[in-house]
């Protein structure tokens, strides 16, 4: 965990509006799924929407991860010391959760 | 595609409220992610939430799929004729999309 | 578990040679990866091969699953009784393992 | 692509024997799967083995990726210049292939 204050500006911040837009669209997909269940739509059509939503989420995650590496991890490496190692371990754990989820 | 009328009641309908509740929680997770980006939280913490949300979505998909098979696919098999084959193909395509998404 | 004797011929058997060929190719990919590590190839190139091998394995799994459903699950549904329910639960558990692995 | 010569020793090399051992075990799993198909084992049992093999492969990939980041990516960041950016992009593409495979 991290309170978001101890770090240099996070990598994704320059594209904050883009991420917010994508997450609002994902929120809209979650509402669309509720409507489909409410209206008793066909299971397979609901599953197609779930797959689309999962792909959109993964794409957000991969974007955030790339920006995290090119900012936080690279900055820690350049600063030297044990923090680079720590940042790599932390990013690796996040990647493992993405691959397995 | 399927307009939801040509079928016997879909398998998930008996648990409609449960699915709606889970999807509302997922919608809440999407809003929580927007707040995290808005507040410029740490990337890795955002990624942890994305993984949790992806797992929740997959779990909904696996539940819907199981009910689809135990109702629609089984009913088509019992009715006989080419529809069983068609239902299996359709379910398999949905499974492939889940596995690859 | 299942000793393979209590069932009607399994669905994949008509395409046994095709599956054996694909699995031999996957075995070859595993040997290729050992050669790459032995020769100290670049990590990213090794990871590309791992992804190709994972995709090949998933494709075998999706094929087996589709044939299992169109033979075993459909036959159990047609036979009636509690076995259909059991087969669906068993297939669903296998699908969950694939989605999460 | 990379011919493996232009780099400082790759990160995984210190644990080369460990990776070779794990890959040999994965090769053995591929042979075990062929035996199962040859002996016409039950589909679901074959799928269980495929999931175990996929998990073993992913675990190798995640290990290689972590060592790649803590050696190659960190070294490029410390060297400065455009190569760090390039290494991050390359690692991100590899991660995307893993997440989607």
UniProtKB/TrEMBL annotation, chains A, B, C, D:
GO terms for molecular function: DNA-binding transcription repressor activity; metal ion binding; transcription cis-regulatory region binding. Keywords: Copper, Cytoplasm, DNA-binding, Metal-binding, Repressor, Transcription, Transcription regulation. It is found in: Cytoplasm. It holds the Pfam family Trns_repr_metal. Its main location: cytoplasm. It comes from the Bacteria. GO terms for cellular component: cytoplasm; protein-DNA complex. The keyword Transcription regulation applies. Transmembrane segments: none annotated. Belongs to the CsoR family. This is DNA-binding transcriptional regulator, FrmR family.
């Amino acid at each position: 965990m991290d309170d978001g204050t101890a770090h240099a500006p996070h990598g994704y911040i320059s594209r904050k509006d883009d991420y917010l837009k994508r997450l609002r669209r994902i929120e809209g997909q979650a509402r669309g799924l509720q409507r489909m269940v409410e209206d008793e739509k066909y299971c397979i059509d609901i599953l197609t929407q779930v797959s689309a939503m999962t792909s959109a989420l993964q794409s957000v995650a991969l974007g955030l991860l790339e920006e995290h590496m090119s900012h936080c991890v690279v900055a820690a490496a350049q600063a030297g010391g044990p923090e680079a190692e720590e940042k790599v371990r932390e990013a690796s754990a996040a990647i493992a959760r993405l691959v397995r989820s």
